[in-house]
Design a protein that fits this description.
By secondary structure, the chain is mainly alpha-helical. It folds into two domains: 76 residues, Winged helix-like DNA-binding domain superfamily/Winged helix DNA-binding domain (Arc Repressor Mutant, subunit A), CATH 1.10.10; 140 residues, Up-down Bundle (Four Helix Bundle (Hemerythrin (Met), subunit A)). It has a three-stranded antiparallel sheet. A hairpin with a 2-residue loop joins strand 2 and strand 3. Helix 4 packs across helix 6, helix 4 packs antiparallel against helix 7 and helix 8 runs antiparallel to helix 9. 30% of the residues are buried.
């Protein structure tokens, strides 16, 4: 676990608090920090080799995002029920549909080129078997669906919702049974976006999202 919490303290332009958040995200997603587990500022700071201040600030941000909660013993990772995750995913789907359909009506070539790049990159990474990078590219693809609407407030709400799902579910798009279908559906979503076919785009995103919503429910009920 120690290497996961190793923080690069070099002055590379990345704020230390962002490095702490990145380390915590990796630990949570990999299961090194479990729901209900106490998060001690002092213990985390010691493992990261830094002061408690950036750790405290990172935990406060996670608390504001409803990923961490305060208890009488300190802070701990929120335990999501299957219903919580279903509700969050429903919101995520709604935001993606709204953002993408608005974006496709006013699509810029720059956005389309970025979508093309992400779909091609995900396919190439699949051929290479690079599942870690696939997960990152998948996240970028879904972010771009909402970002294309050019509404910063909407986008920030979406990022927070997606983060709550990502940090508190064990399901990943890199799962072997899901990945080929996800790549295929991304290509179909992109084509509908290019064609400015908003009705088809909304339907594809909804079907794609609901498939993962059901998978998340079944996975988390089994753990």
């Amino acid at each position: 676990m120690t290497d996961i919490f190793t923080i690069n303290t070099d002055n590379d332009g990345i704020p230390l608090i962002d490095k702490v958040l990145n380390a915590l995200e990796k630990a949570i997603i990999r299961g090194d920090i479990r729901p209900g587990e106490r998060l001690s500022e002092a213990s985390l700071a010691k493992k990261m080799g830094i002061s408690r201040v950036p750790v405290r600030e990172a935990l406060i941000r996670l608390e504001e995002a409803e990923i961490v909660k305060k208890t009488y013993q300190g802070r701990e990772l929120v335990q999501r029920t299957s219903k919580d995750l279903e509700d969050l995913y429903e919101i995520k789907i709604l935001l993606e549909v709204h953002g993408a359909t608005k974006g496709c009506l006013n699509s810029r070539q720059q956005i389309i080129d970025r979508f093309d790049d992400l779909v091609l990159k995900m396919d190439n990474l699949f051929q290479e078997g690079n599942v870690l990078k696939i997960q990152q590219v998948n996240q970028q693809f879904h972010n771009l669906l909402v970002k294309s609407a050019n509404n910063e407030k909407l986008y920030n709400i979406y990022l927070n919702t997606a983060k709550q799902i990502r940090w508190t579910t064990r399901l990943s798009v890199s799962d072997s049974e899901i990945l080929p279908l996800a790549i295929k559906e991304h290509s179909e979503i992109l084509q509908a976006f290019k064609d400015s076919d908003c009705s088809k785009l909304a339907s594809l995103i909804k079907t794609h999202g609901e498939r993962f919503q059901k998978s998340i429910s079944s996975v988390n009920q089994s753990v």
